[in-house]
Write a sequence for this structure.
């Protein structure tokens, strides 16, 4: 949820709009937001705080007494356009995109090497891994969508192909929400296990 859409939580089924994303506590959620948006928000709040400090000497402090959350939301609402992307420092904590890429890499690769005929224990472990994601995934906004999706389409842990297909569809659902192209699910092995037939990844 972004500051811009804070009051319309029914919008959560639609594409994630640009801007600062708020967590369940209504405060800006760093791990739910791209690093460019986060840095832009930090710059804006710093500027606003400086401006408020300067003007408070000649007026009442009412405008700045709404608490951290309210000022954060106001600053975030002032965003929306001009996000200034700067190159992140190396070894910075991940943002929503880096975390997403790393998680998808782990999940798709694990599915690609999952047994064709898993034992009951392997199935149970895979189910447990997948079911823990909506509970533990740090981007709460992402986790809540995943929870809804998994409720309507439960994980297929019957074997490698079924699991790869199920994950591909989950990922495509996120792609669609973010306005990205759908991935061709017949190419999951090529992407995550075998590499292209021209040998360019060998
Ligand atoms: C469970 C989960 C939920 C998420 N929810 C959100 C969200 O609500 N909002 C948000 O902003 N971000 C969310 N993300 C992050 C988002 O999905 C992306 O990871 C992030 O935006 C970076 O995107 P990217 O374009 O670099 O590629 P990614 O989407 O991370 O994909 C990485 C690579 O996977 C391959 N790929 C793409 N689609 C598929 C597919 N369907 N099947 C197999 N391989 C594929 C492509 O080669 C691609 O380069 C979520 C991530 C996860 C793991």
């Amino acid at each position: 949820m972004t500051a811009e859409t804070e009051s319309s939580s029914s919008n959560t089924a639609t594409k994630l709009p640009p801007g600062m994303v708020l967590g369940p506590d209504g405060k800006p959620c760093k791990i739910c937001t791209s690093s460019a948006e986060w840095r832009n928000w930090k710059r804006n709040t710093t500027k606003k705080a400086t401006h408020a400090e300067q003007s408070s000497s000649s007026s009442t402090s009412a405008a700045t007494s709404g608490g951290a959350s309210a000022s954060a939301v106001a600053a975030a609402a002032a965003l929306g356009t001009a996000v200034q992307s700067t190159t992140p420092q190396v070894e910075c904590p991940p943002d929503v995109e880096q975390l997403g890429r790393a998680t998808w890499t782990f999940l798709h690769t694990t599915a690609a090497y999952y047994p064709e005929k898993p034992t009951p224990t392997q199935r149970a472990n895979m189910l447990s891994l997948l079911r823990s994601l909506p509970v533990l995934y740090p981007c709460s906004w992402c986790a809540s969508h995943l929870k809804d999706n998994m409720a309507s389409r439960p994980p297929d842990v019957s074997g490698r192909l079924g699991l790869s297909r199920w994950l591909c569809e989950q990922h495509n659902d996120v792609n669609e929400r973010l306005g990205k192209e759908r991935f061709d699910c017949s190419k999951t092995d090529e992407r995550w296990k075998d590499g292209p037939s021209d040998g360019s990844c060998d």
